[in-house]
Description:
Blueprint: H1 18-36, H2 47-72, E1 77-79, E2 84-86, H3 106-117, H4 121-134, E3 142-144, H5 145-169, H6 179-191, E4 205-207, E5 224-226, H7 227-231, H8 234-244, H9 248-263, E6 274-276, E7 282-284, E8 286-287, H10 294-307, H11 310-327, E9 328-329, E10 332-333, E11 336-337, E12 348-350, H12 356-363, H13 366-383, E13 389-391, E14 396-398, H14 406-418, H15 422-438, E15 439-440, E16 443-444, E17 447-449, E18 454-455, H16 461-475, E19 488-490, E20 496-498, H17 532-535, H18 542-547, H19 588-596, E21 599-603, E22 609-613, H20 621-645, E23 650-654, E24 663-667, E25 682-688, H21 701-704, E26 708-712, H22 718-727, E27 732-736, E28 766-769, H23 771-784, E29 788-792, H24 798-802, H25 816-822, H26 826-840, E30 858-859, E31 866-867, E32 871-875, H27 884-888, H28 904-913, H29 927-948
Parallel strand pairs: 25-26, 26-27, 27-28
Antiparallel strand pairs: 1-2, 3-4, 5-6, 6-7, 8-11, 9-10, 12-13, 13-14, 15-16, 17-18, 19-20, 21-22, 22-32, 23-24, 23-29, 25-29, 30-31
Bound molecules: 1-deoxymannojirimycin.
The site of 1-deoxymannojirimycin has 9 residues, from loops.
Pathway: Protein modification; protein glycosylation
Cofactor: Ca(2+)
GO biological process, one term: endoplasmic reticulum mannose trimming
Amino acid sequence: MSEAGGALGCGSPVPQRAPWNLVAAATALYLVSATSVWTAGATPMNREEKQKLGNQVLEMFDHAYGNYMEHAYPADELMPLTCRGRVRGQEPSRGDVDDALGKFSLTLIDSLDTLVVLNKTKEFEDAVRKVLRDVNLDNDVVVSVFETNIRVLGGLLGGHSLAIMLKEKGEYMQWYKDELLQMAKQLGYKLLPAFNTTSGLPYPRINLKFGIRKPEARTGTETDTCTACAGTLILEFAALSRFTGATIFEEYARKALDFLWEKRQRSSNLVGVTINIHTGDWVRKDSGVGAGIDSYYEYLLKAYVLLGDDSFLERFNTHYDAIMRYISQPPLLLDVHIHKPMLNARTWMDALLAFFPGLQVLKGDIRPAIETHEMLYQVIKKHNFLPEAFTTDFRVHWAQHPLRPEFAESTYFLYKATGDPYYLEVGKTLIENLNKYARVPCGFAAMKDVRTGSHEDRMDSFFLAEMFKYLYLLFADKEDIIFDIEDYIFTTEAHLLPLWLSTTNQRVSKKNTTSEYTELDDSNFDWTCPNTQILFPNDPLYAQSIREPLKNVVDKSCPRGIIRVREESFRSGAKPPLRARDFMATNPEHLEILKKMGVSLIHLKDGRVQLVQHAIQAASSIDAEDGLRFMQEMIELSSQQQKEQQLPPRAVQIVSHPFFGRVVLTAGPAQFGLDLSKHKETRGFVASSKPYNGCSELTNPEAVMGKIALIQRGQCMFAEKARNIQNAGAIGGIVIDDNEGSSSDTAPLFQMAGDGKDTDDIKIPMLFLFSKEGSIILDAIREYEEVEVLLSDKAKDRAAILKGKMIPSYIINSNPEMENEEQPSSENDSQNQSAEQIISISQAVDLVDQEAPEESSLSSHSDSSPADTDNAASISPAEQTLNPMENQEPTSLDGECTDLDNQPQEQSETEEDSNPNVSWGKKVQPIDSILADWNEDIEAFEMMEKDEL
Ligand code: DMJ
């Protein structure tokens, strides 16, 4: 890798613009030397292997894009499980996520410039023609201003930027006459009414046809928006202005940024997550670098790079200084309160912050970038993907993963900055995991739960816009790309804008902001990019030496609490503050500490105990802060325990032809029957029971014998259905919801409860599928007749399914004894039951709203806005003698702490699978048919192996 980095601010040879150009040109040299002196550390990857990985990325892109074009286009997105387009209004609403869909072929527009980066110029030309022919921007649909800007306006501008580049080269796009730019301009004008507020901050949503506040528009009543939503416009809007000469767009985006800057919390220099667009008051006063704020910071720095306006760099540096002072706790990045920045606002991080190491590279602050990236990588190694949120002790907080690209983005920038081949290995792992766990026959499916490997019928457009670009560029050499990536900057959606825009149409008047910064210390302003020779002083092991101490930060035992213990905790002579997890309501010493912290204990009439904090009653300000943190921890603890009471979702994986484990459906567990988290998975062919509701003795026992029975929900208790199919000889059951159209995408999963009686007699595993997931199995039966599934706590590796480890049942003789071995003994069952009961004891915390001064605010819920103090929490009597930590310890129940690469379950599979007598089914097949099936399996396996190389 010889170049300094596409849109890598510090290091990009930026043409034609004075202030940035000088420093960039100089530092570019240092990056070159940093990359060329690499001699030790991770083994360098040779050109051949890089090319192989690059080709694999190309093949994966073809799979994703090809399936979108074939099965979904002109819809906005592909639904990769059901292999059709997602058309807004035709699918159950998913809430805000759907605001990205404007019936404007979102994925096609978002993919335009990826096609050129991936050297698919011919396909790009076709795609542009399709956009011009088919896309309508005048739909009566309410869309997110932010998403439409970054994905659609950005997509059109990225497409235009590369179309004119190609046209100039003289081979492709010779017919192009700025049509994409005209569309972008049309869209820009459609978004402008959103800015009609006194503050200049845009409304969060707009109707593409009717604008805002008209009765037909169905929007315009909102009062709040997120900081990133209002602060992530300047790159696209300025580019639009400079490309077209219409200055209004850049003016509007600048005004919104100016307003946000004015409203920053002046003592901490931080911004909150949401702001009132009319009054400018902070609605959520927590502050981090992830969801809700992320790209506001990104755009300040990148606006400086693209537009050369110093005020953006000054603002960025001021915020960056605050971020590093309060939010950065290497390797963690933890939200704090804008007014009390020493106080953590939560004990978990979200996946969106994974972009931040990339931004730190652009800023030139490599060390913390390496640290945070390494921590994130270890979380990924544990769960295969970055869960949407994870705790400070690296357990899953929100288990979804919609194939977000931020980590790949940071990996790319770190590789560009360090040249360390370690980052190529990281990229290779990302590719492997995508192919292993997210690839389905019709594209790539988002992970519904990284712990179980279950899927969501969703492939977001950013997966094509960003993921493939960063992964391809990671492995590409300069000659693999048909243009110079250094001449462009990446928007937050990875769209490419040319840096020459900095000197074009600079007609927008800039606010004179000099006086605003006089209060700030000069050291806040780094006017030069760091010298990478100092960062990497001829030491190729530099990055490795930073990573090394973090190697075990996420280990198999799920260590608790590397969360920063505030300095005050160690003040001499003082005991460390009481942690919520250690609190016992019967311990007089603890009650004394509560009092000192201003926390009082109120015994409620219903027997519960309520905690209320009055910061003003604390013995000192430090005790008041400790009290605030204690209350916050108590709330976190409680919500965590409430979550842990729930059995985690289970997986139904279709393993027979042509699915071969690629389709994984999210299933609800049952509170009775075989617990799949403690026992080996159950595998078998499916058969519908008669009667279908399973509410009486089955009339078709021969059909369900030795199989997994399908039963419809309704008309009797779940346990009754289970008993009826068990009596007929079924080895498992899947209850399918009778509410047509229901889906785990839109409805919360639940556990099937028993019937209030003893359910120990039910030995078979039972899972629940919503109607949409259930119909995937029913459709498969219609199409292929014989459908074999695996019921388990998490999806199994497809290689394990096919590599002879789990040989399809029809190849092996059946052995009923083995099946019996799989049934748990009733003794085990009762043990399991009691284990669950212990775990289900938890703290119930209720919140009591009380007025209090803003300065002592506390997050009232782990993911909600901070509530103003006084803070209150109540605990039920059952917990008064309970040490909450005991209940919190990760158990095999939720599997969060099991290393997915090293599961004991897989081990037992191997042992048992090596036994040729193992059988999961009893199907008798003629030998020809067996061989034909087996050949098909081998072919599929070979294909898969090729895929995964
Ligand atoms: C993308 O749409 C953009 O990167 C945005 O800034 C936030 N993240 C999503 C993808 O995760």
